[in-house]
Protein backbone atom coordinates (compact mmCIF):
# COMPACT_ATOMS: atom_id res chain seq x y z
CA UNK A 1 0.00 0.00 0.00
CA UNK A 2 1.34 3.46 -0.83
CA UNK A 3 1.61 6.15 1.85
CA UNK A 4 -1.73 7.98 2.22
CA UNK A 5 -1.97 11.68 1.36
CA UNK A 6 -2.54 13.82 4.44
CA UNK A 7 -5.45 16.30 4.38
CA UNK A 8 -6.92 18.67 6.98
CA UNK A 9 -10.64 19.36 6.99
CA UNK A 10 -12.34 22.14 8.95
CA UNK A 11 -14.81 21.41 11.72
CA UNK A 12 -18.31 22.76 11.23
CA UNK A 13 -20.65 23.31 8.30
CA UNK A 14 -18.01 23.04 5.61
CA UNK A 15 -16.97 19.61 6.89
CA UNK A 16 -20.45 18.19 6.19
CA UNK A 17 -20.37 19.55 2.65
CA UNK A 18 -16.90 18.17 1.96
CA UNK A 19 -17.86 14.75 3.33
CA UNK A 20 -20.99 14.68 1.19
CA UNK A 21 -19.02 15.74 -1.91
CA UNK A 22 -16.30 13.14 -1.29
CA UNK A 23 -18.97 10.43 -0.99
CA UNK A 24 -20.26 11.28 -4.46
CA UNK A 25 -16.71 10.63 -5.68
CA UNK A 26 -16.39 7.27 -3.91
CA UNK A 27 -14.36 8.47 -0.92
CA UNK A 28 -15.89 7.36 2.38
CA UNK A 29 -14.74 8.27 5.88
CA UNK A 30 -16.04 9.11 9.32
CA UNK A 31 -14.49 10.12 12.61
CA UNK A 32 -15.00 7.99 15.67
CA UNK A 33 -16.44 9.90 18.61
CA UNK A 34 -13.96 12.52 19.92
CA UNK A 35 -11.24 11.34 17.54
CA UNK A 36 -9.65 13.91 15.26
CA UNK A 37 -7.75 11.59 12.90
CA UNK A 38 -9.38 9.18 10.45
CA UNK A 39 -8.61 7.29 7.26
CA UNK A 40 -10.85 6.88 4.26
CA UNK A 41 -12.04 3.32 3.53
CA UNK A 42 -9.35 2.73 0.91
CA UNK A 43 -6.70 4.25 3.21
CA UNK A 44 -5.56 6.60 0.46
CA UNK A 45 -6.17 9.59 2.72
CA UNK A 46 -5.22 10.36 6.29
CA UNK A 47 -7.67 13.02 7.44
CA UNK A 48 -7.23 15.51 10.30
CA UNK A 49 -10.20 17.38 11.72
CA UNK A 50 -9.05 20.84 12.82
CA UNK A 51 -10.47 24.20 13.75
CA UNK A 52 -11.17 26.25 10.62
CA UNK A 53 -8.84 29.11 11.54
CA UNK A 54 -6.00 26.71 12.48
CA UNK A 55 -6.18 24.79 9.21
CA UNK A 56 -3.70 27.00 7.28
CA UNK A 57 -1.16 26.65 10.10
CA UNK A 58 -1.24 22.84 9.93
CA UNK A 59 -0.85 22.93 6.15
CA UNK A 60 1.85 25.64 6.20
CA UNK A 61 3.93 23.54 8.60
CA UNK A 62 3.43 20.45 6.46
CA UNK A 63 1.64 18.48 9.20
CA UNK A 64 -1.16 18.07 6.69
CA UNK A 65 -0.03 18.28 3.08
CA UNK A 66 -3.48 19.27 1.82
CA UNK A 67 -6.47 21.14 3.22
CA UNK A 68 -9.88 22.41 2.25
CA UNK A 69 -10.90 25.89 3.34
CA UNK A 70 -12.25 29.26 2.27
CA UNK A 71 -10.17 32.10 0.84
CA UNK A 72 -10.98 34.19 3.90
CA UNK A 73 -9.05 31.81 6.14
CA UNK A 74 -6.19 31.58 3.64
CA UNK A 75 -5.77 35.33 3.28
CA UNK A 76 -6.06 36.04 7.01
CA UNK A 77 -3.41 33.43 7.79
CA UNK A 78 -0.81 35.29 5.69
CA UNK A 79 0.59 31.97 4.42
CA UNK A 80 0.94 31.14 0.76
CA UNK A 81 -0.40 27.86 -0.59
CA UNK A 82 -1.06 26.22 -3.90
CA UNK A 83 -4.78 26.72 -4.61
CA UNK A 84 -5.25 23.60 -6.68
CA UNK A 85 -9.01 23.25 -7.07
CA UNK A 86 -11.89 25.65 -6.39
CA UNK A 87 -15.24 24.18 -5.30
CA UNK A 88 -18.69 25.49 -6.07
CA UNK A 89 -20.00 24.69 -2.58
CA UNK A 90 -19.37 26.68 0.59
CA UNK A 91 -18.91 29.95 -1.28
CA UNK A 92 -19.83 33.22 0.36
CA UNK A 93 -18.92 36.90 0.08
CA UNK A 94 -17.08 39.42 2.20
CA UNK A 95 -19.20 42.52 2.53
CA UNK A 96 -19.28 45.93 4.17
CA UNK A 97 -22.52 46.42 6.12
CA UNK A 98 -23.95 49.15 8.35
CA UNK A 99 -27.11 50.51 9.90
CA UNK A 100 -29.77 51.49 7.39
CA UNK A 101 -29.10 55.24 7.65
CA UNK A 102 -25.30 54.88 7.27
CA UNK A 103 -23.75 56.37 4.16
CA UNK A 104 -20.12 56.32 3.00
CA UNK A 105 -20.60 59.81 1.51
CA UNK A 106 -21.07 61.51 4.87
CA UNK A 107 -17.64 60.54 6.21
CA UNK A 108 -15.43 63.31 7.55
CA UNK A 109 -12.53 61.14 8.77
CA UNK A 110 -11.28 57.57 8.55
CA UNK A 111 -13.94 54.89 8.17
CA UNK A 112 -14.22 52.90 11.40
CA UNK A 113 -14.91 49.22 10.79
CA UNK A 114 -15.37 46.35 13.23
CA UNK A 115 -14.33 43.00 11.78
CA UNK A 116 -12.68 39.65 12.33
CA UNK A 117 -11.13 39.93 8.85
CA UNK A 118 -8.58 42.65 9.52
CA UNK A 119 -6.10 41.74 6.77
CA UNK A 120 -8.63 41.58 3.95
CA UNK A 121 -10.38 44.73 5.14
CA UNK A 122 -7.16 46.74 5.40
CA UNK A 123 -5.94 45.54 2.00
CA UNK A 124 -9.24 46.29 0.28
CA UNK A 125 -9.67 49.85 1.55
CA UNK A 126 -6.00 50.80 1.23
CA UNK A 127 -6.07 49.65 -2.39
CA UNK A 128 -9.02 52.01 -2.91
CA UNK A 129 -7.22 54.83 -1.09
CA UNK A 130 -9.78 55.00 1.70
CA UNK A 131 -8.29 55.48 5.22
CA UNK A 132 -9.75 53.02 7.73
CA UNK A 133 -9.64 52.49 11.45
CA UNK A 134 -10.10 48.81 12.15
CA UNK A 135 -11.41 47.33 15.39
CA UNK A 136 -10.79 43.61 15.71
CA UNK A 137 -13.62 41.45 17.01
CA UNK A 138 -13.63 37.67 17.23
CA UNK A 139 -17.30 37.05 16.55
CA UNK A 140 -20.85 38.49 16.51
CA UNK A 141 -19.56 41.57 14.73
CA UNK A 142 -23.09 42.64 13.81
CA UNK A 143 -23.43 43.80 17.40
CA UNK A 144 -20.82 46.56 16.87
CA UNK A 145 -23.06 49.07 14.99
CA UNK A 146 -26.05 48.21 17.23
CA UNK A 147 -24.08 48.96 20.40
CA UNK A 148 -22.23 51.93 18.91
CA UNK A 149 -18.68 50.47 18.76
CA UNK A 150 -18.35 51.16 15.02
CA UNK A 151 -20.77 52.45 12.39
CA UNK A 152 -20.10 49.54 10.06
CA UNK A 153 -18.69 46.04 9.85
CA UNK A 154 -16.95 43.78 7.36
CA UNK A 155 -18.12 40.20 7.58
CA UNK A 156 -18.90 37.09 5.57
CA UNK A 157 -22.44 37.18 4.28
CA UNK A 158 -24.18 34.04 3.09
CA UNK A 159 -27.93 34.70 3.21
CA UNK A 160 -27.99 38.12 4.91
CA UNK A 161 -30.56 37.00 7.49
CA UNK A 162 -28.34 37.82 10.51
CA UNK A 163 -27.77 41.32 9.13
CA UNK A 164 -31.49 41.81 8.59
CA UNK A 165 -32.29 40.65 12.12
CA UNK A 166 -29.97 43.35 13.47
CA UNK A 167 -31.32 46.12 11.25
CA UNK A 168 -28.17 46.16 9.11
CA UNK A 169 -27.82 46.16 5.36
CA UNK A 170 -25.06 45.52 2.86
CA UNK A 171 -23.34 48.71 1.67
CA UNK A 172 -20.95 47.02 -0.76
CA UNK A 173 -19.50 43.62 -1.58
CA UNK A 174 -15.72 43.52 -1.12
CA UNK A 175 -15.01 40.14 -2.73
CA UNK A 176 -16.36 36.67 -3.39
CA UNK A 177 -14.98 33.98 -1.14
CA UNK A 178 -14.55 30.52 -2.61
CA UNK A 179 -13.60 27.23 -1.02
CA UNK A 180 -10.37 25.68 -2.35
CA UNK A 181 -8.32 22.54 -2.10
CA UNK A 182 -4.99 23.94 -0.93
CA UNK A 183 -1.58 22.29 -0.72
CA UNK A 184 1.64 22.94 1.10
CA UNK A 185 3.91 23.89 -1.86
CA UNK A 186 6.79 21.61 -0.79
CA UNK A 187 4.41 18.69 -0.19
CA UNK A 188 2.91 19.18 -3.64
CA UNK A 189 6.36 19.15 -5.24
CA UNK A 190 7.15 15.77 -3.69
CA UNK A 191 3.72 14.17 -4.22
CA UNK A 192 2.47 15.94 -7.35
CA UNK A 193 1.53 12.73 -9.19
CA UNK A 194 -0.64 11.33 -6.37
CA UNK A 195 -2.16 14.77 -5.72
CA UNK A 196 -3.00 15.30 -9.40
CA UNK A 197 -4.75 11.92 -9.43
CA UNK A 198 -6.66 12.89 -6.28
CA UNK A 199 -7.72 16.18 -7.93
CA UNK A 200 -9.07 14.27 -10.92
CA UNK A 201 -11.07 12.07 -8.55
CA UNK A 202 -12.69 14.90 -6.56
CA UNK A 203 -13.12 17.44 -9.37
CA UNK A 204 -16.76 18.55 -9.67
CA UNK A 205 -18.56 17.48 -12.85
CA UNK B 1 15.20 40.58 36.43
CA UNK B 2 13.98 37.01 36.69
CA UNK B 3 11.26 37.65 34.11
CA UNK B 4 13.76 39.29 31.77
CA UNK B 5 15.95 36.22 31.95
CA UNK B 6 13.06 34.09 30.77
CA UNK B 7 12.22 36.38 27.87
CA UNK B 8 13.89 35.90 24.49
CA UNK B 9 13.86 38.56 21.77
CA UNK B 10 11.41 37.43 19.09
CA UNK B 11 13.17 35.54 16.34
CA UNK B 12 16.47 34.74 18.04
CA UNK B 13 17.74 31.21 18.13
CA UNK B 14 20.41 29.31 20.04
CA UNK B 15 21.80 25.84 19.57
CA UNK B 16 22.51 23.66 22.58
CA UNK B 17 24.96 20.83 23.25
CA UNK B 18 24.07 17.81 21.08
CA UNK B 19 22.11 20.04 18.75
CA UNK B 20 25.26 22.08 18.17
CA UNK B 21 27.28 18.91 17.80
CA UNK B 22 24.91 17.69 15.08
CA UNK B 23 24.96 21.07 13.38
CA UNK B 24 28.77 21.19 13.30
CA UNK B 25 29.04 17.58 12.20
CA UNK B 26 26.79 18.12 9.17
CA UNK B 27 28.56 21.37 8.40
CA UNK B 28 31.97 19.66 8.50
CA UNK B 29 30.61 16.99 6.18
CA UNK B 30 29.41 19.67 3.77
CA UNK B 31 32.73 21.52 3.92
CA UNK B 32 34.77 18.36 3.33
CA UNK B 33 32.70 17.38 0.32
CA UNK B 34 32.69 20.83 -1.31
CA UNK B 35 36.45 21.22 -0.73
CA UNK B 36 36.96 17.92 -2.54
CA UNK B 37 35.08 19.52 -5.46
CA UNK B 38 37.58 22.41 -5.38
CA UNK B 39 35.55 25.00 -3.45
CA UNK B 40 37.25 27.42 -1.02
CA UNK B 41 35.72 29.08 2.05
CA UNK B 42 34.68 32.73 2.15
CA UNK B 43 33.16 34.87 4.90
CA UNK B 44 30.81 37.77 4.25
CA UNK B 45 30.36 40.80 6.57
CA UNK B 46 27.39 40.78 8.92
CA UNK B 47 26.28 44.27 7.82
CA UNK B 48 26.98 46.61 4.93
CA UNK B 49 25.78 49.91 3.46
CA UNK B 50 22.14 49.64 2.40
CA UNK B 51 22.67 51.93 -0.62
CA UNK B 52 24.94 49.35 -2.28
CA UNK B 53 22.04 46.93 -2.55
CA UNK B 54 18.96 49.16 -2.65
CA UNK B 55 18.30 48.74 -6.39
CA UNK B 56 18.81 44.97 -6.26
CA UNK B 57 16.31 44.26 -3.50
CA UNK B 58 12.79 43.45 -4.61
CA UNK B 59 10.10 44.93 -2.42
CA UNK B 60 9.62 41.66 -0.50
CA UNK B 61 13.29 41.27 0.42
CA UNK B 62 13.50 44.98 1.18
CA UNK B 63 10.59 44.61 3.63
CA UNK B 64 12.24 41.62 5.27
CA UNK B 65 15.63 43.29 5.71
CA UNK B 66 16.68 44.66 9.10
CA UNK B 67 18.14 48.16 8.74
CA UNK B 68 20.06 50.31 11.19
CA UNK B 69 21.86 53.65 11.30
CA UNK B 70 25.57 53.72 12.17
CA UNK B 71 27.36 56.34 14.27
CA UNK B 72 28.06 58.49 11.19
CA UNK B 73 24.40 58.45 10.22
CA UNK B 74 24.75 56.04 7.28
CA UNK B 75 21.98 53.52 6.68
CA UNK B 76 23.18 49.93 7.05
CA UNK B 77 21.50 46.60 6.45
CA UNK B 78 22.08 43.32 8.23
CA UNK B 79 23.02 40.41 5.97
CA UNK B 80 19.67 39.25 4.56
CA UNK B 81 21.01 37.56 1.42
CA UNK B 82 24.49 36.06 1.28
CA UNK B 83 24.61 35.99 -2.54
CA UNK B 84 24.31 39.79 -2.67
CA UNK B 85 27.00 40.36 -0.03
CA UNK B 86 29.26 37.82 -1.71
CA UNK B 87 28.77 39.36 -5.16
CA UNK B 88 29.94 42.72 -3.81
CA UNK B 89 32.96 41.15 -2.14
CA UNK B 90 33.92 39.15 -5.24
CA UNK B 91 33.06 41.91 -7.73
CA UNK B 92 35.55 44.22 -6.04
CA UNK B 93 38.50 41.81 -5.87
CA UNK B 94 38.21 39.29 -8.70
CA UNK B 95 40.15 39.68 -11.93
CA UNK B 96 39.36 37.99 -15.21
CA UNK B 97 42.49 35.82 -15.04
CA UNK B 98 41.34 34.21 -11.79
CA UNK B 99 38.09 32.83 -13.20
CA UNK B 100 36.53 30.40 -12.67
CA UNK B 101 36.42 30.70 -8.90
CA UNK B 102 34.67 28.24 -6.60
CA UNK B 103 33.64 29.33 -3.12
CA UNK B 104 31.49 28.08 -0.25
CA UNK B 105 30.13 29.91 2.78
CA UNK B 106 28.44 29.15 6.08
CA UNK B 107 26.84 32.18 7.69
CA UNK B 108 23.68 33.36 9.38
CA UNK B 109 21.26 35.66 7.62
CA UNK B 110 18.66 37.80 9.32
CA UNK B 111 15.27 38.26 7.73
CA UNK B 112 11.88 39.14 9.12
CA UNK B 113 9.78 36.24 7.81
CA UNK B 114 6.78 35.98 10.11
CA UNK B 115 4.68 34.36 7.38
CA UNK B 116 7.10 31.43 7.36
CA UNK B 117 7.97 31.02 10.99
CA UNK B 118 7.51 33.72 13.58
CA UNK B 119 9.87 31.94 15.98
CA UNK B 120 12.92 32.39 13.82
CA UNK B 121 14.30 35.35 11.91
CA UNK B 122 17.86 34.16 12.03
CA UNK B 123 18.60 31.52 9.43
CA UNK B 124 21.80 29.59 9.08
CA UNK B 125 22.72 29.20 5.44
CA UNK B 126 25.50 27.27 3.85
CA UNK B 127 26.06 27.24 0.13
CA UNK B 128 28.31 27.27 -2.88
CA UNK B 129 28.93 29.69 -5.72
CA UNK B 130 30.61 28.95 -9.02
CA UNK B 131 31.85 32.18 -10.59
CA UNK B 132 33.01 32.48 -14.18
CA UNK B 133 31.65 29.29 -15.67
CA UNK B 134 28.72 30.08 -17.95
CA UNK B 135 26.31 27.75 -19.71
CA UNK B 136 25.50 24.08 -19.37
CA UNK B 137 28.75 22.99 -17.71
CA UNK B 138 28.39 25.51 -14.88
CA UNK B 139 24.70 24.68 -14.39
CA UNK B 140 25.42 20.96 -14.20
CA UNK B 141 28.30 21.32 -11.77
CA UNK B 142 26.17 23.21 -9.25
CA UNK B 143 23.12 20.97 -9.68
CA UNK B 144 25.15 17.79 -9.32
CA UNK B 145 27.03 19.13 -6.30
CA UNK B 146 23.73 19.93 -4.58
CA UNK B 147 22.33 16.48 -5.42
CA UNK B 148 25.50 14.86 -4.09
CA UNK B 149 25.23 16.82 -0.84
CA UNK B 150 21.58 15.96 -0.30
CA UNK B 151 22.33 12.31 -0.93
CA UNK B 152 25.26 12.42 1.49
CA UNK B 153 23.11 13.98 4.22
CA UNK B 154 21.01 10.81 4.15
CA UNK B 155 17.68 12.57 3.91
CA UNK B 156 14.24 11.09 3.26
CA UNK B 157 12.96 11.35 -0.35
CA UNK B 158 14.37 14.56 -1.83
CA UNK B 159 13.77 16.20 -5.20
CA UNK B 160 15.46 19.10 -6.96
CA UNK B 161 12.98 20.98 -9.17
CA UNK B 162 14.67 22.87 -12.00
CA UNK B 163 12.92 25.73 -13.79
CA UNK B 164 13.90 28.70 -15.93
CA UNK B 165 13.61 32.40 -15.25
CA UNK B 166 14.14 33.04 -18.97
CA UNK B 167 11.05 31.03 -19.97
CA UNK B 168 8.95 32.99 -17.50
CA UNK B 169 10.43 36.36 -18.53
CA UNK B 170 9.86 35.66 -22.24
CA UNK B 171 6.21 34.78 -21.61
CA UNK B 172 5.61 37.64 -19.16
CA UNK B 173 7.34 40.09 -21.52
CA UNK B 174 4.13 40.55 -23.51
CA UNK B 175 2.12 41.49 -20.41
CA UNK B 176 1.89 44.89 -18.77
CA UNK B 177 3.62 45.37 -15.40
CA UNK B 178 0.54 44.62 -13.29
CA UNK B 179 -0.37 41.47 -15.24
CA UNK B 180 3.23 40.29 -15.10
CA UNK B 181 3.14 40.64 -11.30
CA UNK B 182 -0.21 38.82 -11.19
CA UNK B 183 1.14 36.00 -13.38
CA UNK B 184 4.06 35.46 -10.99
CA UNK B 185 1.64 35.48 -8.04
CA UNK B 186 -0.81 33.02 -9.61
CA UNK B 187 2.04 30.75 -10.60
CA UNK B 188 3.19 30.65 -6.99
CA UNK B 189 -0.31 29.60 -5.97
CA UNK B 190 -0.81 27.39 -9.06
CA UNK B 191 -4.24 28.84 -9.87
CA UNK B 192 -4.71 27.41 -13.34
CA UNK B 193 -7.79 29.38 -14.37
CA UNK B 194 -6.33 32.71 -13.17
CA UNK B 195 -3.07 32.03 -15.04
CA UNK B 196 -4.98 31.29 -18.23
CA UNK B 197 -7.14 34.38 -17.76
CA UNK B 198 -4.10 36.63 -17.19
CA UNK B 199 -2.26 35.24 -20.22
CA UNK B 200 -5.46 35.55 -22.25
CA UNK B 201 -5.21 39.34 -21.97
CA UNK B 202 -2.03 39.31 -24.09
CA UNK B 203 -2.19 36.08 -26.10
CA UNK B 204 -4.64 34.26 -28.35
CA UNK B 205 -6.85 31.77 -26.52
CA UNK B 206 -5.05 28.62 -27.72
CA UNK B 207 -1.61 30.12 -26.98
CA UNK B 208 -2.76 31.16 -23.51
CA UNK B 209 -3.87 27.55 -22.83
CA UNK B 210 -0.60 26.06 -24.10
CA UNK B 211 1.50 28.57 -22.14
CA UNK B 212 -0.52 27.81 -18.99
CA UNK B 213 0.20 24.10 -19.39
CA UNK B 214 3.88 24.88 -19.94
CA UNK B 215 4.20 27.12 -16.88
CA UNK B 216 2.44 24.56 -14.68
CA UNK B 217 4.50 21.64 -15.96
CA UNK B 218 6.24 19.39 -13.42
CA UNK B 219 7.70 16.07 -14.50
CA UNK B 220 10.68 13.88 -15.12
CA UNK B 221 13.18 14.61 -17.90
CA UNK B 222 11.42 11.97 -19.99
CA UNK B 223 7.98 13.58 -19.46
CA UNK B 224 9.48 16.95 -20.37
CA UNK B 225 11.07 15.66 -23.60
CA UNK B 226 7.67 14.32 -24.71
CA UNK B 227 5.85 17.62 -24.05
CA UNK B 228 8.61 19.92 -25.26
CA UNK B 229 8.05 19.18 -28.96
CA UNK B 230 4.72 21.03 -28.92
CA UNK B 231 6.11 24.01 -26.96
CA UNK B 232 9.15 24.60 -29.22
CA UNK B 233 7.07 26.41 -31.83
CA UNK B 234 5.13 28.57 -29.35
CA UNK B 235 5.56 32.36 -29.63
CA UNK B 236 7.37 31.96 -32.96
CA UNK B 237 9.95 29.69 -31.38
CA UNK B 238 11.26 32.28 -28.89
CA UNK B 239 11.12 29.77 -26.03
CA UNK B 240 12.97 27.00 -27.88
CA UNK B 241 16.50 27.93 -26.80
CA UNK B 242 15.62 27.99 -23.09
CA UNK B 243 13.63 24.75 -23.41
CA UNK B 244 16.53 23.10 -25.28
CA UNK B 245 18.80 24.10 -22.42
CA UNK B 246 16.51 22.43 -19.87
CA UNK B 247 16.38 19.34 -22.08
CA UNK B 248 20.20 19.24 -22.24
CA UNK B 249 20.31 19.42 -18.42
CA UNK B 250 17.81 16.58 -18.03
CA UNK B 251 19.68 14.46 -20.60
CA UNK B 252 22.83 14.90 -18.53
CA UNK B 253 21.26 13.90 -15.23
CA UNK B 254 19.73 10.86 -16.89
CA UNK B 255 23.27 9.70 -17.63
CA UNK B 256 24.08 9.52 -13.89
CA UNK B 257 22.80 6.49 -12.02
CA UNK B 258 20.07 7.38 -9.52
CA UNK B 259 19.83 11.04 -10.57
CA UNK B 260 16.64 10.49 -12.59
CA UNK B 261 14.97 10.00 -9.21
CA UNK B 262 16.53 13.15 -7.75
CA UNK B 263 15.48 15.73 -10.37
CA UNK B 264 12.35 17.11 -12.00
CA UNK B 265 11.81 19.81 -14.58
CA UNK B 266 9.37 22.29 -13.07
CA UNK B 267 8.53 25.43 -15.01
CA UNK B 268 6.60 26.92 -12.11
CA UNK B 269 10.00 27.50 -10.48
CA UNK B 270 10.83 31.05 -11.49
CA UNK B 271 13.19 32.09 -8.70
CA UNK B 272 12.44 34.28 -5.72
CA UNK B 273 15.08 36.95 -6.33
CA UNK B 274 15.04 39.67 -8.96
CA UNK B 275 18.69 39.04 -9.94
CA UNK B 276 18.19 35.50 -11.36
CA UNK B 277 18.90 35.28 -15.08
CA UNK B 278 18.92 31.60 -16.12
CA UNK B 279 17.99 28.30 -14.52
CA UNK B 280 16.51 28.39 -11.02
CA UNK B 281 15.86 25.52 -8.65
CA UNK B 282 14.53 24.49 -5.28
CA UNK B 283 15.15 21.27 -3.37
CA UNK B 284 12.34 19.64 -1.39
CA UNK B 285 12.54 16.88 1.18
CA UNK B 286 9.76 14.70 2.57
CA UNK B 287 8.86 15.98 6.02
CA UNK B 288 9.78 19.62 5.49
CA UNK B 289 7.02 22.12 4.67
CA UNK B 290 9.34 24.48 2.79
CA UNK B 291 12.26 24.04 0.39
CA UNK B 292 15.52 22.96 2.03
CA UNK B 293 17.79 24.52 -0.60
CA UNK B 294 17.42 26.99 -3.43
CA UNK B 295 19.53 28.63 -6.08
CA UNK B 296 20.00 29.65 -9.67
CA UNK B 297 22.09 31.49 -12.22
CA UNK B 298 22.64 35.23 -11.90
CA UNK B 299 24.94 36.42 -14.65
CA UNK B 300 25.61 40.14 -14.50
CA UNK B 301 25.24 40.56 -10.74
CA UNK B 302 28.97 41.00 -10.18
CA UNK B 303 29.16 43.73 -12.86
CA UNK B 304 26.88 45.73 -10.61
CA UNK B 305 29.58 45.61 -7.92
CA UNK B 306 32.52 46.79 -9.99
CA UNK B 307 33.72 43.69 -11.87
CA UNK B 308 35.21 44.90 -15.19
CA UNK B 309 36.61 41.84 -17.01
CA UNK B 310 36.08 41.13 -20.72
CA UNK B 311 35.21 37.54 -19.95
CA UNK B 312 31.80 37.54 -18.17
CA UNK B 313 31.82 36.75 -14.47
CA UNK B 314 28.70 34.64 -14.88
CA UNK B 315 27.67 33.03 -11.61
CA UNK B 316 25.53 30.22 -10.36
CA UNK B 317 25.03 28.98 -6.82
CA UNK B 318 22.77 27.54 -4.16
CA UNK B 319 22.21 27.88 -0.48
CA UNK B 320 20.88 25.32 1.96
CA UNK B 321 18.94 25.91 5.16
CA UNK B 322 21.00 23.76 7.44
CA UNK B 323 18.65 23.87 10.44
CA UNK B 324 15.90 22.25 8.37
CA UNK B 325 18.24 19.54 7.13
CA UNK B 326 19.56 18.72 10.61
CA UNK B 327 16.17 17.63 11.84
CA UNK B 328 15.60 15.42 8.79
CA UNK B 329 19.01 13.88 8.30
CA UNK B 330 19.51 10.28 9.37
CA UNK B 331 23.30 10.64 9.21
CA UNK B 332 24.84 8.65 12.01
CA UNK B 333 26.23 11.02 14.61
CA UNK B 334 28.73 9.38 16.96
CA UNK B 335 28.08 9.93 20.62
CA UNK B 336 29.91 12.84 22.14
CA UNK B 337 33.31 11.94 23.55
CA UNK B 338 32.63 14.15 26.51
CA UNK B 339 29.83 12.02 27.87
CA UNK B 340 31.53 8.64 27.41
CA UNK B 341 35.28 8.87 27.54
CA UNK B 342 36.04 12.08 29.33
CA UNK B 343 34.63 11.09 32.63
CA UNK B 344 34.54 13.85 35.21
CA UNK B 345 36.72 11.84 37.55
CA UNK B 346 39.49 11.70 35.02
CA UNK B 347 42.41 13.96 35.87
CA UNK B 348 43.85 16.41 33.35
CA UNK B 349 46.90 14.21 32.99
CA UNK B 350 44.76 11.13 32.30
CA UNK B 351 42.75 13.10 29.73
CA UNK B 352 45.95 14.18 28.01
CA UNK B 353 47.18 10.59 27.91
CA UNK B 354 43.83 9.41 26.59
CA UNK B 355 43.61 11.97 23.81
CA UNK B 356 47.22 11.39 22.72
CA UNK B 357 46.62 7.67 22.15
Please report the first level of CATH classification, the CATH class of the largest domain in chain A: Alpha Beta
Q: What order do the strands of the largest sheet of chain B run in, or round the barrel if closed?
A: 1-5-6-12-11-10-7-9-8
Largest sheet of chain B: 9 strands, mixed
- CATH level 1 class label of the domain at 158-285 in chain B: Alpha Beta
CATH topology of the largest domain in chain A: D-Maltodextrin-Binding Protein, domain 2
Mean pLDDT of chain B: 89
The most extensive interface, with participating residues per chain, is:
A-B, 20 and 22 residues
Family (chain A): Belongs to the ATP phosphoribosyltransferase family. Short subfamily.
Catalytic activity (chain A): 1-(5-phospho-beta-D-ribosyl)-ATP + diphosphate = 5-phospho-alpha-D-ribose 1-diphosphate + ATP
Subunit structure (chain A): Heteromultimer composed of HisG and HisZ subunits.
Subcellular location (chain A): Cytoplasm
Topology (SSEs and partners):
The complex is a heterodimer of chains A (205) and B (357).
Chain A: E1 5-10, H1 13-24, E2 37-39, E3 45-50, H2 55-60, E4 66-70, H3 71-77, E5 82-99, E6 111-115, H4 118-127, E7 132-136, H5 143-147, E8 152-157, H6 161-165, E9 168-183, H7 185-202
Parallel strand pairs in A: 1-3, 1-4, 6-7, 6-8
Antiparallel strand pairs in A: 2-3, 4-9, 5-8, 5-9
Chain B: H1 2-6, H2 17-36, E1 40-41, E2 47-49, H3 59-64, E3 67-69, E4 75-78, H4 82-93, E5 101-110, E6 122-131, H5 135-152, E7 158-164, H6 165-172, H7 177-189, H8 192-200, H9 205-215, E8 218-219, H10 221-231, H11 240-254, E9 263-266, E10 279-285, E11 293-297, E12 315-321, H12 322-328, H13 337-340, H14 348-355
